[in-house]
Amino acid sequence: MLRSRRVGLGAALRELVAEAAKASPARLALTVFSGMILLVTVMLELPIATVERERTPLVDALFTAVSAVCVTGLTTVDTPTHWSTFGLVVLMFAMKIGGLGVLTLASLLSLSVMRHMGLAQRLITASETRSERLSEVGGVLATIVITSTSFELLTFFALTPHMIANQYPLGTSLFNGAFYAISAFNNAGFVPEVSGTAQYVGDPWFSIPIALAVFVGSLGFPVILVLVRSWRRRAHWTLHAKLTLSTSALLFVLGWIGIALMEWGNPDTLGGHGTGTKLLASAFASVMPRSGGLSTLDVSQFAPATRLFVDILMFIGGGSGSTGGGIKVTTFALLVLSIIAEARGDRDVEVFSRRIPHETIRQAISVLVMSAAVVLVATLVMLELTGLDLDRTVFEVLSAYGTVGLSTGITPDLPTSAKCVIIACMYMGRIGPMTLGAALALRERSRVVRLPEERPIVG
Question: Any stretches that span the bilayer, and where are they (predicted)?
């Protein structure tokens, strides 16, 4: 009797997921993602999740859950002193699941519940993972999980011996190593230690593994899959991989040089350290705005010009299909290339001996405008609710929307209404404006008749 009930419930669940995936895979993805946030919130609300064995206020539990699932790292409570071991394990689980991505998570649900994916689900998953063949989607998902876990294990094995050598107990070293590995690769930005990451400024055994994990995680699974395949066999590098790697490397170098020059003499950041530490700390700080959120320097002590520079890096974010946020490096690269092509009078946008379709440029412009609109509206609302200065407010909003996690220290003191604004920014920044628009669209517009063309004056 019990077995028949389970079979009946399983069949009903499979049918429900199948219908949802067929009707709108994007809405299914948002439903799964929102469900994960709700589940993590409930778990963090349990008294066992806190050191004091007391319930966390709902807004703080929700804020932390959204920050973890959306791999941001902003917090309204002190992570190592407020959350118990159980609470920290819940955060690790949330960061790992959230780092896989919205559509990947929904696809994995479809596979686990239905034992297969329908055509609609395969199409939208292929779009996120950039699979060339629909038959490869299942294998690509497995590769994503295996690859991400492998990078996390490499980071864990690199960090743990160093922590043991620094007189940490074995259990603490193992736990912190695993926490940092998951937090770094998934660009989550959560820290399990009371002393934070400032203690590791100038420490290459911590900074280099963490920075590498953040950088690789921010490249995006489509690029990682290309690199893995080219390592196994001489596979062709896609245009997306070339564009992402070259733009990411350029942004890293520019960020490294820019932060080093602007903070070199600042006594509150780099000024009091030697040349080696300055170079390492500025390189680490250049990687983190990609969406890493960890910092060995006090961001609140950055010069205003440096914070504006970091604002730009956070708005650009990481690669498409990555654990990072922002408008994505490929969007930024396409916009720059289109501006160059327009300035030169070229008819087409070309890069790496390939022509970029006009539809792709239009999508890049849409992402830029929608993201800028979200940031602008959120900043206006935050200024009205908090009365804070524009510099810190913009930094906080961009950090949330870019799912970065860097903060000038104002997050815990925000009123409840302002925390809700930051929650909305983190959520929209993680799922992406295009995914949100597709999920909320009631129907697709298809027009048979096209109106006559006429060019307005631009500029």
Answer: 28-46, 58-77, 83-113, 134-159, 205-231, 243-262, 325-343, 364-383, 421-442
